[in-house]
User: What shape does this take?
Amino acid sequence: MGPSDEELCARIAERDAEAFDLIVERHQARAYRLACSILGNEADARDVSQDAFIRLYEAAHSFDRRARFSTWFYRILVNLCIDHRRRNRWWRRFVPLTGPDDDPDAPAIDPPSTEPGPLEEALRNQSMERLNRALGGLSPHQRTAVLLQIQQGFTSKEIAAVLNCSENTARVHLHRAINQLKKVLKDK
Amino acid sequence: MWSRHPEIVFAPYLNGELDAEESRRLQEHVEGCARCSEGLAEAKSAMDRLAREIDQIAEPDWVVYRAELHRKLNARRYRAPARRWTPRWAWASVATAAAATAAIALTLALSRPQPPAVEQLALEGGWADADIGLLQDYPVVEHLDLLENYDVIENLDSLTPAEPPQHHESRSS
Assistant: This one.
C-alpha cells in the first residue's frame, strides 16, 4: 500500500513531481468520469479535469491535512465543472452537443483529440447520450450529489462538504435526483 | 416510526451510512409499507443502472492525457506572471503615503513667510508715495548731473583762482 492521498498532497506542496504523477494516476479516471457525467461532453471533461489537477498542484499548500483529500479535491473539480456549465450555457442553447434528438450516426461536433475510429466514436456517442438522457433532468447539484455517492461512495456529509451545503440539503438533492432517475430509467 | 414515508434516507441507507438503529427502523418500516418497499427497490435499481452507464464512459488514452496535463502545467508555470490583484495592504500603504505627503505640503504652506500686515502696508505705502512724488519731478531727476554741476557753479567764488600765465612781454621788459 502506497502513501495516502493526504501525504502525497503534502509532498506536492513541496513541489514533488513524483507525488503529483502518483496522485494524478490514482484519481484521473474517477475525476474524468465525474466531469464527463456533470458536463455531458468528453472534450470538456478532459479539459476541466486536467484544470482540476493543475489547481491541485497550485493549491496543495493550502490543503488542511486534517480534512479528507478526496472531499477537498472533488470540491475543486465540481466547482470547475459547475462554472464551466454556467459559462457555456448560452452557447449550448444554440449549438447543443448532445440531446435526445441527436442522430447517433452523425459525426461528433467536438471529437476527442485521440481520434478514435468511426465505430468506437459511435459507441462513445451512444454511451454519452444514454448518460445525458438519464442525467438531463437533474440540476448540477443533484447530478453531483448522486454521482459522488455512486462513483465515490461519498456520504451525505461529504457530499455536503463538496457542495458547500448542509447535510440535510445534500440528502434532499440525492432524494430528488433518485426520484428523477427512477422516472427516466423506468421509461427506457 | 417515522411520521411519514422516509424516502429521504433511501440513498444514505443504500450507501450504508445509516447507523444500526436507523437502519433497523427503516427496514421495519419498509416491511410494513408497500409504497416504501417499492420505492426503495426502484431507487436501488436506478442507482445500479446509473453506475453501469458511468462505467461505460470510454476512457481517454491516459498517457496522452497526462502528457497534455504536464504541457498545460508547464505552460502555466513558465507563463509571464499575470497582473496580480493588488493586495489590500498595498492600497493602505498608498493611502498612508498620500496622507503623509498632504500633511507635509500643508505644513510647508503654513510655514511660508506671512504677507505683511495692513499697518505695515500703510507705512510702506507712505514711502512709496514719496518715491512716486520724486518720480513726478522726472525732469529734475533727469538733470541731476546738472544739479551737481550747479553746486560747483554756486561755489565758484570760494575756489582759488588759478595763476595767470606768464607773458613774454614782461620777460622782455
